[in-house]
Structures are given as C-alpha cells and as structure tokens.
C-alpha cells in the first residue's frame, strides 16, 4: 500500500510539472500566433513601440521561453518579484502570475472566487450523486417497468440539454416570473445561509442535472451487470435478505466505477461551473476566467487554466487512493 | 430411489401411488422450470422427479445445457420469480418449497440447504475478505456477535484444510489459489451445518490434483455430518467417485436413473451409452477411436417431438417403435428407470452385444 | 504439405525423424516496479529449462497443472513469444532468435490451435474470411481461387462448403473449434501446437474433435504438440507424453510406459488423482490415491534443487541441494528425479504407503502466485 501511494504521488508530481510546462508553452505561443506582442497587452494600445519594448524587457518577455518558464516555476514554488518599471511588486508563493488589469497577483484573485465555485460544485455534486445513484438503483430494480422507462427518458434529456438552455429557462421561470427565488447578488454562507442557498439553488440543480443523468444511466447499467454476477447468486444462496444483497453486495461493486467517474467529473466540473456561473451571475472562478478572456488578461487566464489542470491531477490522485481502498485487487498491482 | 417422469400429468398430486407428503428427505416431483424469452419459451427443465435421503449422494450428469444447474437453482428457489415459470413440487424434510412464501425459502437457504458453485473465482465477492463472507453466511441465520462468528469462520477454514486459517481469514479471494478458493466456498456452504448440500460442478475449474483433494473433502464432510449431497457434473469420473445414485439428464428431462453400479455396469439408455462411448478413459488401454454422439444438442424452445433424443439416436425407430411421436416414460417399478421405447430385453441385449465390447 | 508419410502410430519413436528439438528452453517474464524508472525486481520463471524432441508424424502430449508453463512452452515453440534462453531447432533450422520478418515464411509450417473456440474467432468476419485469411496474408497460390481452397478445408474438417458465408456465432462450440482447426490447416503446416483444443468442450463434442485431429494426422501426416491437462484425452491421442511441473519437464516417456510405469513421483500422484469412471473401483482408487498437500509454489521463487520437493513424500536432503537432471532410465523414458519410483511402489501395498506418506508432508507455507 505504501509503495502504491508513493508511486501515485510521484506520478502526480511529474504530471503536474508536465502540465505546467505545456500550459505555459501554449500561453507563450498564443500571442505570437495571433501576431500580437504580449507586452502590448500590459501597456495598452496607446503606448509607443518604445514603451512596449521597454516593458517587454522589464518583464522579461523578450527572454527565451525556457528562461521565462524557469522564472514562472520559481514563482510557483517560492514566489518572485515583478519589476514593472517604477514600482516593484512582490508576488508571494504560489505565484500564478500577476494581473496588471486588476493590479493584483493572480492567486489571491483565485482565492477570492474559490468559495463560490466550491459552494456550487460541492452542492451540485451532493445533489447529483444522491439523485443520480438513487434513480439508477430504482430503475435497475424496476427494470423494464414504466418507472424505469420514464427515468431513462429523463436521463437522456438531461444529458442532451445544454446548461444555458436549462439554466436560462429555470432562471426565467423561478426568478423572473414566479419570484420564488431571489435575483440579486451572491452572499456568503457565513453571512446569510438561507440567502446563500437560495442564490445557489438553481445553479446546483442545473449543474447536477447535467451529471445526474449520466450517473443514473451508469448506476443502472452497472447494477444490471452486477446483479447477474455469480457472487450475487452466492449471496442469495446464503439466505441473505434481498435488501442486504442489493444494498451491500451489489452496491459495493457499483461503487467502484462510480468513484472513478466521479473523480474525473470533479476535475471537469470547472468547465460546467464556468457556464453555470455566468448564467446565474455567480462571482466564481468561472466568471473570473470569462472576464479575464474578455479583457485579454493573459496572466489570469493562464493562472485559471493551470489551476484547473492541477486541480484535475489532484482529483485523480485522490480517486486513485480511494480506488485502492475500495478495490483490494489494485493494491497489489 | 423411486422416480416418475410423467409428461401428461400437470400436478404431481394428480399422480397415483404417491403420498401427498413424502417420507424422503428431499423429494422433487415433476419439477418444471420454463423461461419465457423473446424467441419462445425455453423449457430448461421439463418434468424432473427424484428423491434423495440423508447421508446419500445423488449425481446428476448430462451435456451442457441439459438443465442441471437450472434444476439445482430451482430447488434453492434462486430463479427470479417474474422471469421464470416454475411448477411441480420440491419437498425438503416434509416442507414444500415451490409454493412456500419466498421469505420462508430464504430462511432455509444457507441453513438447511447450501450450495457450492462451479467457479470459485467468480462465485466469491471480490471486494470482501473471505472471512467476512463466511461470517456473513453464519450471522444471517445465527444471532451471534461478530467475534463469535469470526471464530467460527477460522474454525471452518481450518476444517476444510486452509493452512494458517487465523491469518488467511482476512485475505481477499484473489489472494487464494483456485483450490483454496473452492475450499473457502465449501467452508461458507458448511457454515450452518446444512442438511442438503448441492455442489454444481464443484471441481470443473480445478486441476486433477486439486480436484482429488476437493472430492476427498466433500466425502469426509458427508461422512461426518451425514448430509444429503447433490452433485452436478458432466464428468462421469467425478460422479463415479462420489455418487450412490445417478440421474442422467437430456434436454431438461431425466432419461435414465439408478444406482451408480447399475448405470456404469449395465446402462440401458442410448444417450447414456453415447456419453460413455465418447469419453476417453485413463483406466483402459487406448482405443483407436472414440464414439461421439452424432449431431448437436437440441433447441430447448422447439424440442424434437417424441423422444427428444431421436434425431441423434442410432436406434431411433428400430422395430417400429414410436420414437418420433410418443414421449417415452421413465419406466417405473424397479430401481432402474429408463425413458426409452426399446423393450428392456432388447436394450440389455444391445448393450451386452454391441455397446459394451466397444467401451 | 509434409512429404513424410504418417508412421504407424504404435512404433513412432523419437529420434526416428526429428522435426523439432528444444534444448534448455527458458522464458522468464520480468516483474517490473516503478512508474518512471522501471526496474526489474524479479522474474516469473514460466518456462525454465525445457528439453523436448518431437518426431515427424507423432503426437507429443504436454501435461501438468495450471500455471506450470504449458501454454508458454507452446507459444515459444510456435515463436509467438521470444525465448529468453535455450534453443529451438525446427526441421533442421535454428529458429530461436529469428526476427518477425525472417520468421514469416516459417509461420506457414508451425500453426497453433487455441483453447477457446469462442474468443479466438472474430465475430464480425465470415467463416470464409477467417479460414482464408492466412492464405491471403501469406500469398499462397490457390489454383482454383481462395474460395475453393477454403471450401475444401471446411470439408476436410467436417463442415459443409455452404458454411462459407456464415458467422461464428451461428455455430456450436465443436463446430467453432473445427473452424479454428481449418484455419490452422490452411497453410498446410508440418507442426500444429494445439493448446487445450478440447478442454472447453462437452464430452461428446470433445470426442468429435479428438477424432478429427486423429483423422487429419493420418491423412496429412501432421505432427502435433498437444497441450492438455486431461490425462484421459492425452492417453487417447498422444504417442509420447511430457509431464511438466513448475516450468520444467520432469518426465518424458512413450504413452504406454508413462501410464503403466510412471517414474517421477509427481507423475504417479497426477495419475492417481484422475477420477476413475467405475464405481466398483472407487474405494480402492481412494485408498491408493496420492493427495498432494498444499499448492504449487510460486514460479517467481521456486524451491531450490528439485522443485517438487516441497510436496514430495520421497524428498530427502539431496533433493534440496541438487537439481535432478532429466536422464534416460529405460528406452525413451526420461525422468528428472534422484529417487525415481520403483516397481514396489506401484503395487497396491506400495500405493497405500505412498498415500499415507503424501498426506504427512507438511504443507508449504508459501502463498501461491
Ligand atoms: N434465465 C434464463 N433464461 C433463459 N434461458 C435460460 C436461463 N437460465 C438457463 N437457461 C437455459 O436453460 C438451459 C439449461 O441450462 P443449465 O444451466 O441448467 O444447463 P447445465 O445442464 O447446467 O449446463 P452446463 O453443463 O453448461 O452448466 C440452457 O439452454 C440455458 O441456456
Ligand atoms: N505475459 C506474462 N507475463 C508474466 N507472467 C506470465 C505471462 N504469461 C504467463 N505467465 C506466467 O507464467 C506461468 C506459466 O503460464 P502458462 O500460461 O504457460 O501456464 P499453463 O501451464 O499453460 O497453465 P494453464 O493450464 O492454466 O493454461 C504462470 O505462472 C503465468 O502466470
Ligand atoms: S426412445 Fe427411440 S430415439 Fe429415444 S432413446 Fe430410445 S430408441 Fe432412441
Ligand atoms: S528428486 Fe527428490 S524431491 Fe524431487 S521428485 Fe525425486 S524424490 Fe521427490
Ligand atoms: Mg451448469
Ligand atoms: Mg495454458
């Protein structure tokens, strides 16, 4: 087991390094391909070419990509100083870059927005796991019946409807027409729990719907497969109650693939969150990145992308560990 | 062992000459298990009857798909109710199971009747430890603490010959070898000292040396507990090793039954001859050719008319017997039942003159 | 196709016309650890010094318990795997280290038949495509076209030419195994390595396939290496038998000699374990049966000296120290044991003594692989 963990930690670390290199490389290339000078983005359109060149030099943007990456990497680990002409700014570790538009390092920007995104993601995850798995189990147990069919049609619809459609529709009906839910600004959980939940509710449901459908289908398929396994027959042959057979023996096997998929989805959630946040006007990381793209705030976009990628690696690492706990056969591998 | 195999009567109670309540420990009467499918009704078991006493072993043999496993699952009540049509009666120790409420059958399952399955790798839950699975089997039927059940599990593992049971009890099934897994399966089946032990191909997935160990173990345990054992296999060698009585199945029916000696020394059904003839034997000088049964097993949805074996039977229609039109009954009376239209004298003569010399 | 005529089965003896000679054959599968820096921490010694010869037209049986390296040996012989040691000489040519490209023309001459008739045939291809594939791949000239050639092959294995356009799922297990055999025969090989060709089949279908293999050998002068764990089938079909234990050949002998006078204790135990389909001899068989204790040790870390010593009731100090070499004790009867089974041990009394002695061997505490 220890071997396994050490191996996974190493793999994840190397993966993170590679990802940071690739991401950095891409963001280094993009302005070049677009024919713009990144320094222009910092100083603004009105600046003279000389100003641009000076800024580029100061920021080290004229250096080769390897040198720039080395600085960036050092910043991530140990923090670094940014020399922007007259004023020197310190960007503390982990330094994901410095946003000149906001005049702040990227990391605190991210941290500011993180609670919103986490609130949205965790709430949605709880909803979709509970809802999706429950629907899948019920469907599988009532296989072929009217309940099963209805559920699977809904699931299909859930998978195929885009978030902006369901989201905007829900927003229109519940907030603007029925006034059941507040419009207004996002509030913190600590300040006003009810308001927090009310504001997030639609986001949770919309996002959960997107995933719950897939989970229901996966759970159902997995259950139907497991129910046919020899070891389930053995469980029945022992005289176990049907409740125990399904709740313990079948669910144990269904859980394993669910955990895997869940890990991948948590990673990919950021994508779903971006859309959802913008639909419901939630000030999370998704919104941050959209705003950054709109204002061409390259460091922020880079920071968010890298953060997202690292988050996915981390999620996968945790899933792998979970997997080893769940499936004893993995430990020896 | 008395057997009937009457295709005409619908309920066994309608059969003359049989007590409504049997005296035998296990008495299966006219068991039928049909599966409705999109292509038609699969008549997997179509009127099988037999009895089995405590301390005795009955072997069921037959080709793949002849309904052996379906019969055993039918006794345990393990078929999914909504998808299966079951009729007939299964009397276990004076209690009828087919018509009993499922909850009642569940309480008997694992306690009074237990089962060992073919493939010990797939028949154990991969995510639970061997010990946990045995503990569970014990605690369903006994209100005892985990610690007590665990001691019982260690005990059972030791009984079936697992070395260092106190340590191995916490292993997962994949950490056991095939033979050890099958031993663990047997330990699980024995957890509640069942009176009826059904072993469905208990050694088919194992090597001969391990098979010999497992058969030895089953024999020992039966001597010790005097349970009734039903062993299902397609290996005639294995039944010859274990069984007191043998029942030969073909296409969901019993075609011949009798004591092991009878069936091996003077079999009378052409299908049984076919099985014996197609089997290479290690205890005889090598023959030149095996004698396979021609053709392939019948469809259980559209069974051949008359004797289901007739398309493959070399004696079909001999002397004008009605093989294609009439279903032969499992002739009753003696302790040797044969479902074939050939007259008994003719069968015995054919076996002695044509079949036996070639075996 | 082989120009040799099939020799009389009873007189076929090794060395008469040698087709295959395997010397010191080894296959060690490395066990690696580490995600980035792969290092080898050990090896599965699946095949560890196997010597065999096969004469033209004979059938050599390869028996032994699961995991003893039979399939690996078969795959090495047909060069689907590259040996890690030893040599393979086929038809006078050393094929041990031939590259895939150089091996290609030889593929025609060595073919393999696999155990599972279900998974070894591509379900999306017709029988015609499956059986004809080797002809097309190897560019074999077919005077009347590939289709005719395939139909002839189908007839040869007892299928009908009309089956040409059907799919594998339309056939029964025995018929599917015939399709596999037809495919192996397409290139008119000299040697066929059959890896458990009948193990997955019902007795009556098994008999059909066994008879077919027999007929084909007689008609085409084929040579077989027949891998199986069923000693009854092997007795029926093989001229000579090699017994393997944990990656090594422990005994090789002409069929009748092996079954009548086994010399290796393991062979004796193996033969005694075969269930006898005769209820009258049941009690006797049980009293004389040698039940080995414990499991086969792991091929990663086999016992020193004789590999069977952890379960052998005759083991002595020398067995631990010294690896017994395969030596010839009688005509064509080779055994690797320091203390081969003697005649007295094959009498009923000797067998009962062995039965008791074997039960007393302390089970090895090693966990199986
Ligand atoms: N749930 C089911 N639905 C439809 N058909 C079924 C079902 N279960 C079994 N059958 C069919 O019933 C027949 C008898 O099956 P059974 O498993 O009893 O055979 P068997 O004698 O045990 O064979 P084997 O030796 O291969 O185990 C087979 O043709 C099988 O396909
Ligand atoms: N590719 C591989 N990598 C690692 N180990 C392997 C590989 N192939 C086989 N082995 C191991 O080599 C040993 C011999 O395997 P092999 O398949 O040759 O046995 P076998 O005698 O054919 O057994 P069976 O009767 O089960 O088919 C086994 O311990 C197996 O686990
Ligand atoms: S009844 Fe006829 S077809 Fe059936 S087994 Fe007897 S002889 Fe053969
Ligand atoms: S060499 Fe020794 S241990 Fe090995 S088989 Fe012979 S007697 Fe047994
Ligand atoms: Mg079965
Ligand atoms: Mg193999």
TrEMBL record, chain A:
Gene3D superfamilies recorded: MetI-like (1.10.3720.10)
PROSITE patterns, per the entry: ABC_TM1
CDD domains reported in the protein's UniProt record: TM_PBP2
Domain of life: Bacteria
Xref: InterPro entries: BPD_transp_1_N, MetI-like, MetI-like_sf
Family in the record: Belongs to the binding-protein-dependent transport system permease family.
PANTHER family per UniProt: DIPEPTIDE TRANSPORT SYSTEM PERMEASE PROTEIN DPPB-RELATED
Name the record gives this protein: Peptide/nickel transport system permease protein
Membrane topology according to the record: Multi-pass membrane protein
Localization in the cell: Cell membrane
TrEMBL record, chain B:
Assigned protein family: Belongs to the ABC transporter superfamily.
Composition bias, Polar residues: 1-12
Stretches the record annotates as Disordered: 1-21
Stretches assigned to the ABC transporter domain: 28-276
Predominant localisation class: membrane
Membrane topology summary: Peripheral membrane protein
The protein, known as: Peptide/nickel transport system ATP-binding protein
UniProt xrefs under SMART domains: AAA (SM00382)
PANTHER family assigned: DIPEPTIDE TRANSPORT ATP-BINDING PROTEIN DPPD (PTHR43297:SF2), OLIGOPEPTIDE TRANSPORT ATP-BINDING PROTEIN APPD (PTHR43297)
Family annotation (InterPro entries): AAA+_ATPase, ABC_Ni/Peptide_Import, ABC_transporter-like_ATP-bd, ABC_transporter-like_CS, Oligopep_ABC_C, P-loop_NTPase
One of the protein's GO biological processes: peptide transport
NCBIfam families to which the protein is assigned, alphabetical: oligo_HPY
GO cellular component, one term: plasma membrane
Protein keywords: ATP-binding, Cell membrane, Membrane, Nucleotide-binding, Transport
Subcellular location: Cell membrane
Entry GO MF terms: ATP binding; ATP hydrolysis activity
Segments traversing the membrane: none
Automatic annotation (TrEMBL), chain C:
Gene Ontology MF, one: ATP binding
Pfam families noted in UniProt: ABC_tran, oligo_HPY
Keyword ATP-binding: yes
Coiled coil (residue ranges): none
The keyword Transmembrane helix is assigned to this record: no
Keywords: ATP-binding, Nucleotide-binding, Transport
SMART domains in alphabetical order: AAA
GO biological process: peptide transport; transmembrane transport
Segments forming domain ABC transporter: 20-271
NCBIfam families: oligo_HPY, PRK11308.1
PANTHER family linked to this entry: D,D-DIPEPTIDE TRANSPORT ATP-BINDING PROTEIN DDPF-RELATED, TRANSPORT ATP-BINDING PROTEIN
Similarity section: Belongs to the ABC transporter superfamily.
Protein name (record): Peptide/nickel transport system ATP-binding protein
Organism: Micromonospora mirobrigensis
Record lineage: Bacteria, Bacillati, Actinomycetota, Actinomycetes, Micromonosporales
């Amino acid at each position: 087991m220890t071997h396994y963990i050490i191996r996974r930690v190493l793999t994840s670390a190397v993966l993170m390094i590679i990802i940071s290199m690739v991401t950095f490389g891409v963001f280094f290339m993009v302005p070049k391909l677009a024919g713009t000078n990144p320094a222009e983005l910092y100083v603004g359109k009105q600046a003279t070419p000389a100003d641009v060149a000076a800024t580029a030099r100061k920021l080290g943007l004229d250096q080769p990509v390897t040198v720039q990456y080395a600085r960036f990497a050092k910043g991530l680990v140990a923090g670094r100083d940014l020399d922007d002409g007259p004023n020197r700014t310190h960007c503390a570790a982990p330094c994901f870059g410095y946003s000149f538009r906001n005049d702040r390092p990227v990391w605190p920007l991210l941290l500011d927005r993180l609670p919103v995104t986490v609130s949205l993601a965790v709430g949605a995850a709880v909803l979709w796991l509970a809802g999706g798995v429950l629907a899948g189990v019920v469907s599988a147990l009532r296989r072929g019946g009217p309940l099963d069919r209805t559920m699977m049609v809904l699931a299909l619809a859930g998978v195929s409807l885009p978030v902006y459609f369901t989201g905007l529709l829900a927003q229109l009906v519940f907030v603007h027409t029925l006034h059941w839910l507040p419009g207004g600004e996002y509030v913190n959980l600590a300040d006003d729990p009810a308001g927090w939940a009310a504001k997030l509710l639609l986001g949770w449901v919309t996002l959960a719907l997107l995933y719950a459908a897939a989970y229901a289908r996966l759970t159902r398929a997995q259950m139907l497969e497991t129910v046919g396994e020899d070891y389930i027959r053995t469980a029945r042959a022992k005289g176990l109650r049907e409740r125990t057979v399904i709740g313990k023996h079948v669910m144990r096997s269904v859980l394993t693939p669910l955990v895997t998929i869940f890990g991948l989805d948590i990673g990919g959630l950021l994508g779903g969150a971006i859309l959802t946040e913008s639909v419901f006007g939630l000030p999370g990381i998704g919104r941050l990145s959209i705003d950054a793209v709109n204002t061409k705030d390259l460091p922020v976009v880079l920071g968010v992308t890298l953060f997202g990628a690292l988050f996915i690696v981390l999620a996968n690492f945790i899933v792998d560990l979970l997997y080893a706990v769940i499936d004893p056969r993995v430990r020896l591998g | 062992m008395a057997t009937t195999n009457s295709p005409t009567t619908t309920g066994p109670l309608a059969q003359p000459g049989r007590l409504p309540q049997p005296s035998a420990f296990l008495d299966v009467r006219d068991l039928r298990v049909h599966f409705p499918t999109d292509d038609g009704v699969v008549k997997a078991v179509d009127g099988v009857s037999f009895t089995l006493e405590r301390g005795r072993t009955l072997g069921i043999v037959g080709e793949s798909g002849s309904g052996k496993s379906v019969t055993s699952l039918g006794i345990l009540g393990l078929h999914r109710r909504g998808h299966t049509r079951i009729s007939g009666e299964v009397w276990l120790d004076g209690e009828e199971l087919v018509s009993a409420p499922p909850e009642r059958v569940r309480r008997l399952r694992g306690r009074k009747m237990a089962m060992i399955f073919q493939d010990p790798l797939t028949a154990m839950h991969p995510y639970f430890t061997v010990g946990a699975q045995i503990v569970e089997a014990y605690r369903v039927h006994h209100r005892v603490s985990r610690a007590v059940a665990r001691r019982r599990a260690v005990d059972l593992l030791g009984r079936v010959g697992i070395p260092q049971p106190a340590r191995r009890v916490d292993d997962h099934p994949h950490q056991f070898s095939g033979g050890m897994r099958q031993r663990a399966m047997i330990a699980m089946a024995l957890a509640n000292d069942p009176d009826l032990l059904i072993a469905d191909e208990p050694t088919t997935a194992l090597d001969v040396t391990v098979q010999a160990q497992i058969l030895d173990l089953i024999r020992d345990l039966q001597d010790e507990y005097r349970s009734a054992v039903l062993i299902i296999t397609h290996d005639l060698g294995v039944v010859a090793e274990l069984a007191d009585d043998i029942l030969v199945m073909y296409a969901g029916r019993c075609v011949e039954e009798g004591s092991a000696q009878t069936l091996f020394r003077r079999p009378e059904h052409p299908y049984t001859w076919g099985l014996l003839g197609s089997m290479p034997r290690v205890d005889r000088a090598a023959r030149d050719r095996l004698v396979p049964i021609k053709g392939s097993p019948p469809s259980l949805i559209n069974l051949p008319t008359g004797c289901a074996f007739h398309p493959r039977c070399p004696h079909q229609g001999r002397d004008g017997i009605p093989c294609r039109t009439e279903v032969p009954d499992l002739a009753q009376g003696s302790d040797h039942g044969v479902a074939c239209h050939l007259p008994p004298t003719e069968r015995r003569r054919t076996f002695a003159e044509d079949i036996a010399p070639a075996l | 196709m082989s120009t040799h005529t099939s020799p009389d089965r009873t007189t076929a003896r090794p060395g008469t016309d040698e087709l295959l000679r395997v010397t010191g054959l080894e296959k060690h599968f490395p066990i690696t650890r580490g995600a980035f820096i792969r290092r080898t921490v050990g090896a599965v010694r699946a095949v560890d010094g196997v010597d065999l010869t096969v004469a033209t037209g004979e059938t050599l049986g390869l028996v032994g318990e699961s995991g003893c390296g039979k399939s690996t040996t078969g795959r090495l012989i047909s060069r689907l795997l590259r040996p890690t040691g030893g040599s393979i000489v086929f038809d006078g040519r050393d094929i041990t280290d031939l590259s895939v490209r150089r091996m290609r023309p030889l593929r025609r001459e060595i073919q393999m038949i696999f155990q599972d008739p279900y998974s070894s045939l591509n379900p999306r291809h017709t029988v015609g495509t499956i059986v004809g594939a080797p002809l097309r791949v190897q560019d074999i000239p077919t005077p009347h076209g590939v289709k005719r050639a395939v139909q002839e092959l189908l007839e040869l294995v007892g299928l009908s030419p009309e089956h040409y356009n059907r799919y594998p799922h339309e056939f029964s297990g025995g018929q599917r195994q015939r399709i596999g055999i037809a495919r192996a025969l397409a290139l008119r090989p000299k040697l066929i390595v059959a890896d458990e060709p009948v193990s997955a089949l019902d007795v009556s279908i098994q008999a059909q396939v066994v008879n077919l293999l027999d007929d084909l050998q007689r008609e085409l002068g084929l040579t077989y290496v027949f891998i199986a764990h069923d000693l009854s089938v092997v007795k029926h079909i093989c001229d000579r038998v090699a017994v393997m234990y944990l990656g090594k050949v422990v005994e090789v002998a002409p069929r009748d000699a092996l079954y009548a006078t086994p010399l290796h204790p393991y062979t004796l135990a193996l033969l005694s374990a075969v269930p006898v389909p005769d209820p009258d001899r049941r009690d006797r068989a049980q009293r004389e049966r040698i039940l080995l204790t414990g499991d086969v040790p792991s091929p990663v870390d086999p016992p020193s000296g004789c590999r069977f010593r952890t379960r052998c009731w005759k083991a002595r100090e020398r067995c631990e120290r010294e690896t017994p070499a395969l030596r010839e004790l009688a005509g064509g009867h080779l055994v690797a044991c320091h203390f081969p089974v003697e005649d007295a041990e094959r009498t009923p009394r000797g067998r009962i003594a062995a039965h008791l002695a074997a039960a007393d061997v302390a089970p090895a505490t090693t966990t199986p692989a």
